[in-house]
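Try this one yourself first.
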């Protein structure tokens, strides 16, 4: 679980929604008007325009003025990601509050023809939903009252897809199966798959609506192999944008590559002139997906200081144990009064550094998950790890092999499912995702 996740982004604030009657004076609606006369969208607009928020003082619940910098609730729904872009959506966008990962296997007898029709349907559905529109047919109305809510839908192909469709000659070498790792306890029924879809949104109903639409679109062409649900902190929940925290309470993603980095595209996306990837993967990326269970009962027995030693960073602000702020470069040689390294030799943050792995880096864009409590009281919770790179052997595999050799965090996590998927570049206007592969 390398220390490289992107920080949350705060959606751009939208103008407050006018809640007054046309030509009439502005007023604060009464409780009766709110409960009987306002739609959900209008109610959200009212909250943003009046600056009212539920709060508690002295044990009593009442209204308090929201801080002036607060993001109006309606702006969360208004945020929109584009479908027709160079790289598929859902890779470089900020973390979303709700996510679904789902893998499909083509049905018995289904091949290239059926896969082509399916990707056409999926692409059109994704385009419509990301724009805040209903599906073309049989929309469930689950998201009727909401805007796009930063919805993204991303599609990928697994190793087995190319055999099922007779496209073996187009299968990238980079899709060779991942090696085994010491922390693997993999459930094969929840790993891999012919097709993979990542769904993310800042509203749970919008995300579920997309998940249901994608499943329905599969029809008789493909069946669900596995599906996982995740979450992140809602944009605007903190006083200012900051690096996300995981379920261990640690800031997770301080050293994630940034799009502004000069070598970002080189590390994350397949170049158009690649000599080792097929032409249809131009501007695409490879996604490694891992369900990583956190052994929280064991982790939470550690003192705060011990937890920081495992990670190599301060829990409060994400700064390296060698000092400074979250963004201060880690001093790997600094020692304490006893001559011991301040950042332990097996600290997670030390081992995952690109300069400790021949420059290997990946763009982490995970979701946390909680799937209930086992009969013995153990929480089934952790990280739906999703990372992006131009070359998974140089990215994920290089770092994970290093972690296998002595990462202090390995004692507190378990990899329970795994997948590797080729994610082609974005669809141009008039195209569907994967068209350059399926119509080659």
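Now uncover the answer:
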């Amino acid at each position: 679980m390398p220390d490289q996740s992107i920080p949350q982004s705060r959606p751009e604030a939208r103008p407050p929604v006018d809640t007054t009657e046309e030509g009439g004076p502005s007023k604060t609606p009464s409780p009766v008007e709110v409960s009987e006369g306002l739609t959900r969208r209008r109610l959200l607009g009212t909250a943003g325009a009046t600056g009212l928020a539920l709060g508690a003082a002295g044990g009593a619940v009442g209204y308090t003025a929201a801080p002036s910098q607060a993001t109006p609730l309606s702006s969360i729904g208004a945020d929109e990601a584009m479908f027709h872009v160079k790289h598929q959506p859902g890779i470089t966008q900020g973390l979303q509050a709700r996510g679904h990962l789902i893998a499909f296997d083509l049905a018995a007898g289904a091949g290239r023809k059926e896969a082509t029709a399916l990707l056409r349907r999926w692409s059109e559905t994704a385009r419509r939903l990301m724009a805040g529109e209903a599906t073309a047919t049989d929309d469930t109305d689950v998201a009727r009252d909401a805007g796009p809510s930063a919805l993204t839908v991303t599609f990928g192909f697994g190793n087995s897809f190319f055999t099922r469709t007779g496209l073996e000659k187009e299968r990238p070498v980079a899709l060779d199966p991942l090696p085994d790792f010491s922390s693997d306890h993999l459930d094969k029924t929840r790993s891999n798959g012919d097709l993979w879809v990542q769904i993310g949104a800042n509203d749970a109903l919008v995300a579920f609506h997309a998940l249901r639409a994608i499943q329905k679109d599969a029809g008789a062409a493909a069946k669900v192999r596995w599906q996982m649900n995740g979450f992140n902190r809602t944009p605007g929940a903190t006083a200012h944008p900051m690096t996300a925290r995981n379920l261990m309470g640690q800031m997770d993603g301080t050293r994630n590559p940034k799009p502004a980095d000069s070598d970002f595209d080189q590390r994350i996306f397949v170049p158009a002139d690649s000599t080792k990837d097929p032409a249809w993967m131009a501007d695409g990326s490879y996604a490694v997906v891992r369900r990583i269970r956190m052994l929280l009962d064991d982790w939470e027995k550690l003192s705060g200081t011990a937890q920081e030693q495992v990670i190599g960073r301060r829990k409060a602000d994400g700064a390296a144990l060698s000092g400074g702020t979250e963004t201060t470069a880690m001093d790997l040689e600094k020692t304490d009064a006893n001559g011991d390294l301040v950042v332990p030799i097996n600290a997670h943050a030390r081992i995952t550094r690109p300069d400790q792995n021949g420059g290997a880096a990946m763009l982490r864009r995970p979701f946390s998950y909680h799937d209930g409590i086992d009969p013995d009281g153990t929480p089934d919770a952790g990280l739906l790890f999703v990372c992006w790179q131009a070359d998974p052997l140089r990215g994920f595999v290089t770092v994970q092999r290093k972690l296998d050799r002595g990462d202090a965090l390995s004692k507190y996590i378990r990899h329970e499912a795994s997948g590797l998927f080729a994610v082609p570049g974005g669809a141009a206007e008039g195209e569907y995702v994967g068209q350059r592969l399926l119509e080659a």
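Discussion: The mean pLDDT is 87. DSSP finds twelve helices and eleven strands in the chain.
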